[in-house]
Structures are given as structure tokens and as C-alpha cells.
Write a sequence for this structure.
């Protein structure tokens, strides 16, 4: 889901006093330096060695790391009290010769919109704290069946930005900080998922996006984030905004780890029109870029001015790497679709779908948007309008039929801005500088995109390249992103 920035900074100081909840052991086993930043493959290799790393070792280590670092970062909103027991069971399975897959014993963090049994699912809102959820979203079941350990839930822009607070801020979790610099933009709304992975608090995290909520924080925090095609992954059990736009997606420090997580998240892909048994790591091979036809915007916009791509040094370097790896680069002029009316349509969807979700959730005091607004007014006072977006949503009046006709036309228009140049130039995908906001067009179209670190800017903050394409082109996008990542080798760790 997307995040938008408005000013409710007066609540942040109070929120900083709220501790991460959950149990964690003290005196966890000392692990070698660098363990926090190992890849999934490296963790698996260490756990496969007799007498080597165990899942319990890793979970205990990361719980302690979260307790040590996260009071400053505010990226983790709740620890899973069952994580250690899950890790012990998976260690027992491994010792008996049973390994469920590449994620066996590997910790994963989940955005606080994803239902997780025995834990809160509050979208960062104090007003949605109630009885722990009694069920797992299907997505969580898929992950645990593959052997992943649910480490905890991540902080986020409250209500996925629909309250109207700053990116990364929630009344329940406080202000998430970018681990590369505390004053840098953290992005929203999957802020905690991106920051936690960047800081080495977990190797993997799941975010969710309506428009930019995976891509933006992943880019700003210097990690890899994939926003899949809408409908590729199961969205049941995830707090909704609009089924026309919503999707969960994987976040990690490498393209390969994102592909592994996407495999595990896919569950039964055949039911969603995906090739059965598709392995998203299959195309991650040397030479993945050779001969690929990749379009790129011939101009970009900065401060309202249209400039040739050569005026963007960072993106010019990205194109140079792609060209050196054998990609065929084709400049294109991308048409901008008419986004007028998008916000009105989205808000109307949120009113219907979020209200329906709240009404069906057990154990919540505030089971409607109107009650949630009243709760926030009572909690924070009415001297400042601290929830303008929620009030706009409740005021929406479009009927379902009015929405459908307008949504269909809008989405078709946005899809054509991607489909047309790809068909005309016989492209495999398109690449752009993250700062061009091209992720907006792909998101409205319901199309996939992946952001990959491309270096740092003059302030030593992460920059990113963004690859996107047509519906269900995830495998191709992952291959291109992998080829670029392996050649560029520009990802940076934060100095914590």
C-alpha cells in the first residue's frame, strides 16, 4: 500500500516511548562477524554443516540485534513469541534429514498488515490493537510450510498512508528511521520492512503495496524490492486498500534472495494463471543481460524541467553497466497517462474494502472507519486535523458501478503506456531511474517492477535503478535485475 506524507509530528515523541513487544532470550550465542548480512544461500550452507549454525542460534542473535539497534530505528513493531520454538522444531527436522527448502530455518519479518496467528495485525494503528489474530494469512502458511521462521512484524506508515502521517510513522510504532542516516527519507508504507533488512535485522521481509509502498522504501533504504503483478500472490488475510491495486511482495538484500522468497510466497501459483512449478531463480545466471532489449526514457524530469538522460549521472552509469553486459538499449518516449481521478477512485475502494475488512475482524473495538476516526480524535485531541486522508475516504460517494467503469478505463490507459513501447520496440523490459517515479505508472497498471541498488548520491545515500514490464514478467525482470546487480556491485551497507 502506498504512503503519503503529511504533518503529524506532534505525536512522534510519545510514540518513541513504546517498546517492541515479544519475548527474547538474553545472552544469545556469539556468532561470527558479518552473520547479520549473510544471504539465504550462505545461511543455508552454514546450517547444513554438522555442528554449525542452527536456526535457534540465528533467531536468538537477530532478536538480540533488534533489541540493541531497533530502539533507534523503530523498524520492528512486534516480535513473534513463538519464533524460538518454531526454530527448534525446524532444527530437529534438519537433524533428522528433513529440509523443507531454501528457507528452512531462515527468519522472515512481515509487514503489520499481514495476519499472523497469535500476533497483532494493526497496520501500525493504536486504534486497531485488539485481540491477537487467530489465523494466518495464506501467505504466512505458504512461508511456514517452506520452513521460514516468522521473526516478527514490521512498523509502517500508519494505515498504509491513509491516515495522513509522515512516511514511516505510526501511532503504535513511532517513526521508522533510514539506517543509512537518521534524517534521510525512509519511504512508505513498507518502511520497517525495508529498514530492517537494510540494517541486518533479518535477511528477508515481506512488504505490501498499492502504489509505491514496496518500491519506494526499498530504493531509499538500499535494498531490493519486488512489486509483483496484481493477483500473482494470494492477498487474503492482508488488510486491504483496493483489490485492483494491492499486492504483497518480497524484500531482501539481493535479487537472488528476493527470488527465493517469491518462490515461497507463491503457494499454489497454478490457481492464479502462473506456470506450475515456476522457479524464479532459474534465469538468474551469468550473462542474463546479453541480447536483452531494454528500453529507457530518453528524457527525465527534474524540478519540472525535461532533461536528456545524459544529465542524470547516476542513471547514465546504470545504462553503461547494462550496455557493457551485452544489453541492447533503446531510448523511448513514454507517454504519461492521465491520472486525474485516481485518488478519488482509490479512496472510494478503500472505504468499501477496508470497512468490510474491519467489520469481519474479530476482537477489534473499532470495527469501522468512522469508529477509528473517533478513536483517533479521543486519543490525540481535535486541535489539529491529524487524519485528513481518513476523513476524505469516509466522505467518498462513488457507487461500485461508477468506480468500475472509471477504473477499467484508467487501468487500461496506464497499461498502454507500458505495453505500447514494449510491443513497438520488441522490448524485454524497461529500466528507469527510481527518481523518475515511473513506479507509479506500473503500479496503477497492476504491472510488476523491481528496484535494485545503483550506488550512492552526493549525500552518500542509496540510489536505485527500477526495472518494469508487462503483466506476469517477474521472471524476466528478476533476471535483468540480477545481471545488473552482479555486474554493478554497488550495494552499500549502512554504518550503524
Amino acid at each position: 500500500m502506498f504512503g503519503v506524507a503529511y504533518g503529524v509530528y506532534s505525536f512522534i515523541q510519545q510514540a518513541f516511548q513504546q517498546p517492541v513487544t515479544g519475548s527474547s532470550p538474553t545472552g544469545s550465542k556469539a556468532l561470527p562477524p558479518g552473520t547479520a548480512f549473510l544471504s539465504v544461500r550462505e545461511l543455508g550452507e552454514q546450517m547444513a554443516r554438522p555442528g554449525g549454525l542452527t536456526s535457534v542460534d540465528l533467531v536468538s542473535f537477530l532478536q538480540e540485534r533488534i533489541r540493541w539497534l531497533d530502539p533507534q530505528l523503530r523498524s520492528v513493531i512486534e516480535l513473534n513469541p513463538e519464533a524460538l520454538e518454531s526454530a527448534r522444531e525446524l532444527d530437529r527436522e534438519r537433524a533428522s534429514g528433513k529440509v523443507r527448502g531454501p528457507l528452512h530455518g531462515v527468519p522472515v519479518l512481515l509487514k503489520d498488515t499481514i495476519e499472523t496467528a497469535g500476533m497483532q495485525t494493526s497496520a501500525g494503528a493504536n486504534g486497531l490493537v485488539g485481540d491477537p489474530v487467530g489465523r494466518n494469512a495464506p501467505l504466512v502458511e505458504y512461508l511456514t510450510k517452506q520452513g521460514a521462521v516468522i521473526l516478527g512484524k514490521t512498523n509502517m506508515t500508519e494505515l498504509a498512508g491513509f491516515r495522513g502521517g509522515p512516511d514511516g510513522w505510526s501511532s503504535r510504532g513511532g517513526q521508522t528511521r533510514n539506517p543509512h542516516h537518521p534524517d534521510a527519507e525512509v519511504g512508505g508504507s513498507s518502511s520497517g520492512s525495508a529498514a530492517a533488512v537494510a540494517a541486518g535485522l533479518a535477511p528477508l521481509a515481506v512488504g505490501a503495496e498499492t502504489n509505491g509502498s514496496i518500491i519506494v522504501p526499498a530504493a531509499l533504504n538500499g535494498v531490493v524490492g519486488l512489486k509483483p503483478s496484481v493477483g500473482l500472490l494470494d492477498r487474503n488475510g492482508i488488510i486491504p486498500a483496493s483489490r485492483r491495486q494491492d499486492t504483497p511482495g518480497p524484500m531482501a538484500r539481493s535479487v537472488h534472495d528476493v527470488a527465493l522468497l517469491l518462490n515461497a510466497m507463491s503457494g499454489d501459483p497454478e490457481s492464479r494463471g502462473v506456470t506450475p512449478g515456476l522457479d524464479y531463480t532459474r534465469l538468474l545466471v551469468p550473462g542474463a543481460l546479453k541480447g536483452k532489449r531494454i528500453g529507457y526514457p530518453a528524457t527525465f524530469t527534474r524540478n519540472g524541467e525535461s532533461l536528456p538522460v545524459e544529465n542524470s549521472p547516476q542513471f547514465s552509469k546504470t545504462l553503461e553497466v547494462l550496455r557493457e553486459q551485452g544489453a541492447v538499449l533503446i531510448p523511448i518516449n513514454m507517454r504519461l497517462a492521465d491520472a486525474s481521478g485516481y485518488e478519488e477512485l482509490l479512496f472510494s475502494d478503500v472505504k468499501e474494502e477496508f470497512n468490510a475488512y474491519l467489520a469481519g475482524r474479530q476482537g477489534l473495538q473499532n470495527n469501522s472507519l468512522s469508529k477509528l476516526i473517533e478513536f483517533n480524535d479521543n486519543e490525540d485531541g481535535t486541535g489539529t486535523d491529524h487524519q485528513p486522508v481518513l476523513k476524505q475516504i469516509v466522505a467518498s460517494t462513488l457507487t461500485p458501478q461508477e468506480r468500475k467503469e472509471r477504473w477499467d478505463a484508467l487501468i487500461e490507459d496506464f497499461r498502454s503506456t507500458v505495453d505500447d513501447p514494449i510491443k513497438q520496440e520488441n522490448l524485454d523490459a524497461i529500466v528507469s531511474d527510481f527518481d523518475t517515479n515511473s513506479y507509479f505508472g506500473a503500479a496503477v497498471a497492476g504491472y510488476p517492477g523491481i528496484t535494485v541498488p545503483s550506488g550512492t548520491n552526493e549525500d552518500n545515500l542509496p540510489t536505485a535503478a527500477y526495472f518494469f514490464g508487462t503483466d506476469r514478467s517477474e521472471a524476466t525482470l528478476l533476471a535483468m535485475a540480477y545481471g545488473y546487480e552482479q555486474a554493478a556491485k554497488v550495494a552499500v551497507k549502512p554504518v550503524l
Q: What stands out?
A: The two ends are 28 Å apart (CA to CA). DSSP finds 15 helices and 15 strands in the chain.
